[in-house]
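User: For my dataset I need records formatted as: sequence, then structure tokens, nothing else. Please produce one.
Assistant:
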Amino acid sequence: MDGMTRRRGESGAHPARRFRMTARNQPVGTSADGPAELVVSEVTVRFAGLTALDAVSFTVAPGSVHALIGPNGAGKSTCFNVLSGVCRAASGSVRFGGVELTCLRPHRVAALGVARTFQNIALSPHLTVRDNLMLGRHRLTRAGFVSAGLRLPRAGREAVRHGARVAEIAEFAGVRDVLSVPVGLLPYGVRKRVELARALCMEPRLLLLDEPVAGMTGGERREMAALIESVRESLGISILLVEHDMGMVMRIADAVTVLDFGRRIADGPPEEVRRDPEVIRAYLGDYAEGRHGDLGAGGEEA
């Protein structure tokens, strides 16, 4: 897939680079022709007597940025857990590129080209950035434990190829200068970008981003938003993100699905969703009764 020039944020700008996803890096079970469609249909999840998701349906179009939003407790994280194979649905269907995901374990979902970041950073703090990114290459590694342990030439050549790819992805994400630094010594905003870079190291077709700008400063948020847009524009990767920053969502999302108490209450283009009375009521409660306008019109929403 041809790359495009990457746009960077205001700080830490690098010269324009080209970033490509070649056919040999395509995940197992996907086509090099383009990203696949994710179709979530009537998914229901119950925990004992609690219904966390109630017949939720939405579709992430190939190559789009799709936002999944809602107040705390709306079911967003549960939905991500179903999509990534961590949680099983009581009923419903999740199909990615025509493959049913609800019966697959997490490593099988990952093998189809689905990568995820987490709200709470899930990196190894004592490992360097390079080693953390190399962990993202694990499913693409063909040399076995014995070959690597004996340092056979085939394993060595593969390690060199993966190392070169890691450096390329680190450059794209703006973290190449810290490849040799232990992750635990990095500022919070940089660690969030490292986690996104590790997900890219899996050569995904679909990225699940769980609150990618949570806890960041205004400048860090803008830079992360620019990076997410570059992932979509340069690589054509489909992105499903959970985010509470409504200003960012309305700027970069192609479509928005809104959950409230496990139910879908709105779905469509940002301009329509932000003016939906049910959405405004879900976020603002009784205050919404006397409010005119829309949600997220003025930048960031906590």
